[in-house]
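Consortium newsletter contribution from the modelling node. Members have asked for a concrete example of what our holo predictions look like. Here is one, prepared for the adenosine-5'-diphosphate complex that several groups have been discussing at recent meetings.
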Amino acid sequence: MKIAFIASECDPFVKTGGLADVVGALPKALKELGHEVIIILPLYDSIRKKNLHIDPFFGSMGVWMGAGVEHWCAVKKTVTHDNIAVYFIEYDHYFARTGLYNDSSNNDYADNAARFAFFSRASLQLLMDMNFKPDVIHAHDWQTAPVCAYVKTWGWGGSGIDKAATVLTIHNIGYQGVYPADVYKYAGFSEWDFRSDIFEDHGRVNFLKAGIHYSDMVTTVSPTYARETLDGSQSYGLAPYLNNKKERYVGILNGVDYSAWDPANDKLIPAKFTPEKMDGKRVCRNELKKKFGLDSSKDVPVLGVVSRFADQKGLDVFAGAVERILNSMLVHVAILGAGDANLEKYFSWLPSIMPGKAGSYIGYNNDIAHLIEAGSDFFIMPSRYEPCGLNQIYSLRYGTLPIVRNTGGLADTVIQYNEKTGAGTGFKFDYLSVDSIYDSVGWAVSTYFDRPEHLKKMRKTAMTQDFSWTRSAKEYEMIYLDILKKA
Ligand code: ADP
Ligand code: GLC
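And here is the predicted structure:
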């Protein structure tokens, strides 16, 4: 099959979260199954600054939007190590900025709807102008959800674009691309479609909702999150539209890229280790303690955090528990993250009141993310909701036992510890509160000191679990084939 991925992030080019990991890894796995996959991204400033080898592809490309507006952009191209072609839509007016979606004060860019409507539309123009003729067009999240609507509502001549099956993957239904309706004309959709089951949302436009309506198939990134979005508990209002899709909405658990996240061959950590030979993990922990100013004179386990500081992640509740935890338990914390200004302030201040016990790094840093995964004993994700979550899956491979709220992909990937047998891979709690975080960390820490043989067994079980992409890629392949049959 010929498959075009259209997305706003892709590792290693540009990343703010797990979307980038998925768009970076799934095409590789699909290619290994024998498909031709290309990726289309916006050319952000940050990509340009990386000085990658990117070649001109189209010097100029005209893109009609609605209301008779035509933009002229350019297209660049590179080919990854895995031989996947990546195309970049170059349009500086929209993409030559410091942030992807927000300015430096964490505020949404006011023209986000226009930016991503344009990017969606331009990506399809590229497919047409390069005569790619995809069997499947795979869009991701609200940013490229309009792709599914353009495919079905615009005229595409003999280009084959309208023959392609469209798949929309929802990585996070908490972000729907809801913006003032004045962008609608510019985006170029018909007045007829400004209805509450397609684009309209309390007088505004909702890109994700329209994508759900128009795509041939909607997927999300874990089976439990699919259920939670269908039963309305986590759907942010979109449950009725997802229910309308019937068998055309499914949850497929994300895989992870073990070529980047495996302690046996991770180039970013100070010592490698495997389930059979764990000495390297202690070296990583020492290095982590040093880097984060943690006291290393005693055998005290480390609890790691790597996260966007967003409401979704429940770290505000963790912040309410962490001082009590550090005051009453033998455990240290190492925190890496950025986002919400209050949480940034709190976690950067914490080490000053808990010297030797708490360390933090505010910002985005991939090397430190790897060091935390490798050097910590436990990893906490107290998420309010978590469509899949990748960090807990990375943690499993590094023998860093996850402490998670029992939701979404966290529920699907972590096996609850059994105190009688030592089975399981982590510690799960249902209710998000300061007390349940305190109790679950307490349970983990007491396991570390009182039941070391269980800890060892859990680590081994965790490290030998397999969440590689091959399985998930086969599920996507089946879906693609299925919708092509139905189309
Ligand atoms: P989400 O996509 O909701 O942020 P995931 O767990 O799916 O959550 O993916 C997060 C990804 O982003 C992981 O690869 C994680 O390592 C990375 N990440 C998040 N915050 C940071 C940070 N501050 N520095 C480095 N990497 C980060
Ligand atoms: C989103 C979700 C996260 C998921 C990632 C990749 O950002 O918040 O849970 O793992 O997308 O699908």
